[in-house]
């Protein structure tokens, strides 16, 4: 480990290297009717249709917030799913989540659109996260939340974890202390 410009460099300590990913690019979803799904993602969630390559199947690409939604039309989608009646809105189901800033505004707009939704609140003595869950036209679960209220900390940074993680180890290790020192230095540099 070496110091560069008063900042700590963190050595890689694991024996394997993860793939060199940059970010989430897109989520691909099967849909019964592309036009209905495009309308939903455009008008409800604010995505913008973008040009897509000339595939030999009907679909659409949408983009916003730094990610894409790729819709692939499959009118027989119900044949692939054993559940053909509308699904209950279950926050523990597979879902895509987006950040929001105003839970009241989100709920009012969903109500204005006549959309069913379920809310949940996750909180401890320090943090509060509001969640709103609803379905797209094909039954995919969407979550809107304000998770930016929860600090993102490695599990091993145990002394700083809140009650959101009860399984934290009893003491912090060398790398966690280095990460926290580096973060503290960055915060000091920002405040001046």
Automatic annotation (TrEMBL):
Entry-linked Gene3D superfamilies: 2,3-Dihydroxybiphenyl 1,2-Dioxygenase, domain 1
Source organism superkingdom: Eukaryota
Q: Where is the VOC domain?
A: 23-147
Q: Which residues form a coiled coil?
A: none
Q: Which InterPro entries match?
A: Glyas_Bleomycin-R_OHBP_Dase, Glyas_Fos-R_dOase_dom, VOC_core
- Known PANTHER family for this protein? OS04G0538900 PROTEIN, PTHR46142
> What is the name of the protein in this document?
B-box type zinc finger family protein
Organism of provenance: Hibiscus syriacus
